Amino acid sequence: MARIAIVGAGFGGLSAVRALRRQDPRVAISLVAPAPEFVYYPGLIWVPTGLRQGPELRRDVRGFLARQRVDFHAARVTGLADGGRRIATTTGELECDALIVASGAQNLQHVPGIGHTLTLCDGLGAAGQIRDRLALMDGGRIAFGFAGNPQDPSAVRGGPMFELLFGIDTHLRRRRKRDAFDLVFFSPAAGPENRLGQEAMEFLRAEMVRRNIRTHLGHPLTGFTSGKVLTEGGSLEADLILFMPGLAGPDFAAGSGLPLAPGGFFQADARTLVPGFPGVFVAGDAGAYAGSPDWLPRQAHMAELQAAVAAHNALRHLHGEKPDRSFRNELLCILDSLDGGTLIYRTPSTARVVQGSFWHLAKRMGEWRYRLRYRENPSAGENGPGR
Asked: For the domain 3-34+75-105+249-318, what is the CATH code?
């Protein structure tokens, strides 16, 4: 029986499982990931301010995978061979007839002294550390920033840092401590918000002014110390440094034999197909997609769009047919601030920004509904967003 293998149990990997099963109830599916769990990463922004606790964002997906009749392999991928037909893992090899790589990217660690910073998207542990450090502070300076990959400027994830910045500002105001804190946003880019579009950029700049958040922009980073952000434009003292580094391709990509883009990402086209390797597809942050705009977001929504296309085209490959579907280039996100939010939408022909207090509740409702997909017992109910 033909088998499709999926690498990764994040948004892209699990979305590919759902799409494959909807289209073909019989195809054999294997999924490789370090653990049978899903973490709702967009909810990490709420952990530092206490709106969410770490365990609430984690889902054991063994029940989901069993219901979808997926063979789960608890392992880390160490390499690929035979043009993606053999997957080397820490527990042995796995063969397949088609492959969907949805492993995500890795954070760059090239900035000297990066260990003096905390990175929200490192996961639940890092989000908890930010919460604990913040709880111990009665005042001081907090520096928030992000950077890209020098080899691929598009390999950046800045949205969560804007949300963390505005969310912590709101949190401190509610605690009546904001006047004791100096919040500073830094980035080596002069216009780090440009990827969101002109209207969004103007909104974010105005919002930082309204919230009395200072900026230190356009100065390349040279390093960090325990109390400073070091840049070519001078140092920035800080009692807490929250930093999102640039992204790089997965660690097993270099020895995979597949074509790589600058930054170590798997090359793919708009059909999510790796050129020259029929039956090998990429979804989410592991890929660099030819022909896409430079603002293409590295976010859960985009990974889901790509995963649906990869699943469709992988099934066509098994049937001896050429891939015929491409993903749409679309940025769709809600930048949350605890006291409200802003919907940002962008396509190659459209850019919209819609503000409102209701977007905070909409984002929380979206999290609740998404996590229901992977609940242990699908027949049992679950409380709503709460708090």
From this structure: 3.50.50.60
